[in-house]
Write a structure and sequence with these properties.
Layout (H helix, E strand, L loop, with lengths): L1 H32 L3 E5 L4 E4 L6 E11 L1 H8 L2 H12 L4 H5 L1 H22 L5 E11 L1
Antiparallel strand pairs: 1-3, 2-3, 3-4
Helix pairs in contact: 3-5
């Protein structure tokens, strides 16, 4: 009787050893199926004249993109994106870009403008957000 329990214990142990690698492999496949978040920086930094005689804005802009394929596709349109942001920011009053709540509205406008342009020339799928990682008004 004792011998039967030992044999079934070995079978159970062998079954667990074989099941763990198979179970772990499923997680790797799920991770590969989910596209990674990547960031794409506008280079060089964005510098635009603001309203007034001697005011300018220098901003470091980062695009949050989901998936490497989307990043490569969006990167092809960087001149278009830079142009759109320059046109959006140029001529704004310095007071408007100095206020934090106004910056958030500006960020949302920038995101909508970039999405609109990408949809016109390609596809905005994958573009998740826009961030200002540096924002200097002088």
């Amino acid at each position: 009787m004792r011998h039967v329990y030992r044999l079934s214990g070995w079978w159970l142990l062998a079954l667990l050893i074989l099941a763990v690698p198979a179970w772990a492999g499923d997680d790797e496949e799920e991770e590969k199926a989910t596209p990674e978040i990547e960031y794409l920086a506008l280079q060089p930094k964005l510098i635009v004249n603001l309203a007034g005689r001697r005011h300018y804005l220098r901003a470091d802009v980062q695009l949050m993109i989901k998936g490497k394929d989307n990043k490569e596709r969006i990167q092809k349109h960087m001149p278009l994106i830079r142009h759109a942001l320059i046109m959006l920011f140029s001529g704004l009053p310095p007071e408007q870009v100095a206020d934090i709540s106004q910056r958030e509205q500006l960020r949302e406008k920038a995101l909508m403008e970039i999405r609109k342009l990408l949809d016109r020339y390609s596809d905005s799928d994958g573009l998740k957000d826009v961030f200002f990682t540096e924002f200097l008004v002088q």
